[in-house]
Design brief:
It is built from 4 helices and 16 strands. By secondary structure, the protein is mainly β. The longest helix is centred in the first third of the chain and has 9 residues.
Length: 284
């Protein structure tokens, strides 16, 4: 992309004796506040945001091209920037966050910035107190498929723009009465049938995990016990409140009998499968 630079910045580049450092600006999609950090030795105040100095910051080279290939690079960093803990990363606070990477002259911030890459945070891996984040450029959106494939089950997610089910009608609230672990706990006041919430989404409305979400793997009606697919990143406590909506197994029968939503079913259960297509002769 074309980069229009301040004349003073251009002169600084032409001088050959540059004092440039990289800065990151991260804007979470749903939760949290805008975060800035830099590879410089001290904090930098730029554009109304303080970019915190980072220790253990190690970016790879940025790959950019003039075609439609995705601009990307990786960065390793210690888990201490701006108070962000490992639990926040595991909990998804920075999943698909918007990110801007640019250079500034730390000796003269009035020169403005040199934009390097804009995009989103992709895969994040964590190992022994150090994280690796993949930064994906704006062209990443062009790599996504635009056509749908046939499938016997519904391709929509319950309640999305294709499904159109009103989630409020299938959502309940409650609070925890007992805890086995960070992924298994109970609300003894629940009266729904066994497996009622299997595949549903539980959202915390108070406590350490407030506003974080996790899919329900299993619901036991006898005890009111929920089992999540993954443990919550922060400790849960008795009395923590939640909302949860029932699950959908994406079959035609469930769409018809439970949600009365066949008109929006996004699957083809009657299209012959691969095993039938490959049959020959008198095979059945």
């Amino acid at each position: 992309m074309a980069k229009s630079l301040d004349p003073n910045m251009q002169a600084h580049l032409d001088s050959g004796a540059m004092t440039l450092v990289m800065c990151w600006k991260i804007t979470p999609r749903l939760l949290g506040t805008v975060t800035g950090f830099t590879e410089h030795l001290t904090d930098i105040d730029f554009g109304g945001l303080t970019y915190k100095a980072r220790s253990g910051f190690s970016p790879t080279a940025i790959r950019q091209s003039s075609d439609l290939a995705v601009d990307n690079f990786d960065v390793d960093f210690l888990l201490d920037f701006d108070g962000t803990e490992e639990a926040d990363l595991i909990g998804g606070l920075y999943d698909f966050a918007d990110i801007e990477v640019f250079l500034v002259n730390y000796n003269d911030l009035t020169m403005g910035s040199i934009p390097m890459i804009r995009g989103t945070i992709g895969e994040i891996t964590i190992n022994r107190g150090q994280a690796n984040a993949e930064i994906r450029g704006l062209a990443q959106a062009l790599q996504q498929g635009v056509l749908e494939q046939y499938s016997p089950t519904c391709r929509a997610d319950l309640g999305d723009s294709q499904c159109k089910v009103n989630l409020a009608a299938f959502t309940v609230t409650g609070s925890l009465t007992s805890i086995n672990s960070n992924k298994q706990f109970a609300d003894s006041t629940r009266t729904e049938a066994n497996d009622h919430f299997n595949g549903g989404l539980l959202t915390w409305t108070s406590g350490n995990n407030d506003q974080l979400k996790m899919e329900v793997k299993d619901f036991n009606s006898a005890t009111g016990e929920f089992t999540l697919y993954q443990a919550m990143p922060k400790p849960i406590q008795i009395g923590d409140t939640y909302s949860v909506y029932r699950g959908c197994d994406k079959t035609l029968a469930t769409c018809k009998n439970i949600f009365n939503n066949v008109v929006n079913f996004r699957g083809e259960p009657h299209v012959p499968g691969r095993d039938q297509i490959l049959q020959f002769g008198g095979q059945r």
